[in-house]
Structure formats: structure tokens, C-alpha cells
What we know:
single chain; alpha+beta; Endonuclease I-creI; 4-stranded antiparallel β-sheet; 12 helices; rod-shaped
Amino acid sequence: MSYTSALKTELVRERQGGEASQNMELAGILVSSAKLKFSRKNVDAVIKTDSAAYCRYLYKLTSDLYDLKPEILVDKDRGRRRFTLSYLNADPMLKGTKVLARDRYWFSPVFQTILDAPEKQRRAFLRGCFLGSGSISNPEKQYHLEIGGSLALAETLTELMEMFSIQAGITGHRNQYMVYLKDSEKISDFLRLIGAYKALMDYENVRIGKELRNEVNRQVNCETANLNKTATASAKEIEAIEFLKQTGNYAALPDDLKRSAELRLSYPEDSIGELASKATDGVSRSTLHRRLKRLVDLKTGLETKELETKEEKQ
Length: 314
């Protein structure tokens, strides 16, 4: 079972809210997933799903609210059962949910009324829209939730979500648009909003686990980078000290530079901060860094001078 299927199965296990909220949830399902077939006298509504639980839920919901029972056709698509629910003469349901205006031509009534509806009904409408055409990715792979539909539906959904401080994006063209969320916290807020509490707990556990792993990885990478930086700097400093000794320039160094040099030779793997804490003369980290850098600079200067001398002789 996909992550989306598991979430929708949770949502249809029991109804939420009173009759007004259930009617608004049904409106969300219809505007997001129903295909309407118009004739001179009637309007039929067709909804397709591959979920038996959702099929049963819709059957009971429309039966209780409008005494309207669909004809159900079951077929197989690539080995999976596919349910087609056909509501014949669905005018009472479509007008009762304000999905269809009195002239029967457009969805505009519900898009206007939902924005001024009580909070519970707005939440129910969002829940219905997700049941109708929503999907969510497994958070282990990526953070993504989307609901498909017309441009009018997409604009209404983004405005509704904004009322709950959830900023959603819109993508698509022509007659198919997607309202999407990619922020993990906003997706969690949406799941809480539509009453998917078990899915919310699972989602949060995965999200927190990923954040902890990412934080650990960042710290490890940072520590590794610091260790590499320390090792590189230490190698240059030790190389400079050995060079100064081999060329007979070490003995002439000031005592403070010699102490710093011997400290580095004694603790080749230590960072500057760790070296400073072991210094017997109370030298600061910045001062110790300048002394060791001076040793490297002395080596570079002597090598440059030696190279220039050879070139002059040639």
C-alpha cells in the first residue's frame, strides 16, 4: 500500500464532524474528482477509485446525506481492482453541496461560500479535496503533498490554506492544476488540519528522524573538515620546522618561536586551540597561530631566496 493509500484509508475509517461538515467534505470530493455528464433533464456524476474502503465510505456518505446510492462497476486494471461509482440524476446532491449552480453550468457557488464558512466546514472541504485528488510522497524519500483540479479549485484551496497559515504553491496549465506543499512542517500542519492524526504522528517521527540524521551528518562533515584543516596546517608547520633545523636556521630563532615549534612537534595532531591549552608560557590561541605561521613564512622566504640565488648564478 502506498503512503497516499494508507493516509486515505485512515481518513475514511470514520466520519468527522456533523452533517454540515460532512456535506462540505462531500463537496470537496465532488469538485476535485467527479466527472459530470449533462443531459437535458439530468446530471450524472462519476467518481473512480482503486480503494474499496473509499468506495464504501462514499456509498454510505451519499446514501445518508442525500439518499443517493451509486451504481458500482468493478473492473481490473493491471491486476488491480478499479471501482467506478455512477450517481444517476445527481442534481439534488450537486446543488445541495453547492457544487453546481442552479443553471447547472459551473462550480462557482461552493468556491464562494466555502471561504466564509465556519472553520470546521473549511477543514472538512480540504479533507474532501485531498480524498478526491490528493497525494502525498513517502517522507523518507521527499517532502511533497499535492491536490489536483481546475484553476478555480486551485485558487480556492490556496486561499483556504492561507487562512490556516499554510502557504501553498500552484503549478499546471490549461484545465489541470496542482496545489502543492514541499515544506515538511506545512505538510504536518495540513495533516493535522484534515484530522489525519495517525499519519501525522508517523510523518513527524520520520521527519524528526531525518532531521536528526542530517544534523549528525552535518556535524560529522564539519568535524572531518576541521580535522583535515588541522592535519594540513600541522604538516606544513612541521615541515617548516624540520627545514629550519636542516638548514641551520633553527638555532637563531627567538625563544618564543622555538617553544611554539617544540610544542607542535610534541603534539602533531592537535589543533591550535588544543596546543595553546598545553603551552607552559600561557600563550593565547591567536598568538600561537601567528608564531607557527611565522615559521612557515620563514621557510618560504628562505626557499625563495635560495631559488633566486641559483638563478643569478646561472
